[in-house]
Specification:
The chain has a single domain, classed as STAS domain (Transcription Regulator spoIIAA). The relative contact order is 0.17. α1 links the parallel β2 and β3 (44-56). The chain has helices at 24-34, 63-75, 90-105, 119-132, and strands spanning 3-8, 13-23, 44-56, 81-86, 111-116. It contains 4 helices and 5 strands; from the N terminus they run ββαβαβαβα. By secondary structure, it is of the alpha/beta class.
Amino acid sequence: MPIEYVIEVHLRRVVATVHGTLTEHDVFGYQRNVWTHPEIAGFDEIVDMTYVEHVDLPTPSGERMRALAELSAEMDAVTSSRFAIVAPGDFAYGLARMYGTYRALDERSTKEVRVFRSMQDAMAWLEEERNAE
């Protein structure tokens, strides 16, 4: 699986890095494998797509992005959290924005999704809330 992740319990955050070819199987597998652990419910999330070389999705129509957003929202914790996606490439950036839009439209979603071109900007946004507390 080209998605590796680390659970930073002390920061209440999951950091995932995607490498190589990203497939539908990888994305749905990551969602189901990682976010079914009750001990990380409500954690912030960051997915770094900097090292994605190719995105292999069956349909570019948005159907699968909508299905992923619905699955993700269904798995959300009751408490709100933040989800930063780092996508420097134009295609990955567009897919991430589409996913974020579908998440925002799902009333079950408790994660605020933002898409960034750099890890530095994404981390600053995640830290912004932590520093405000």
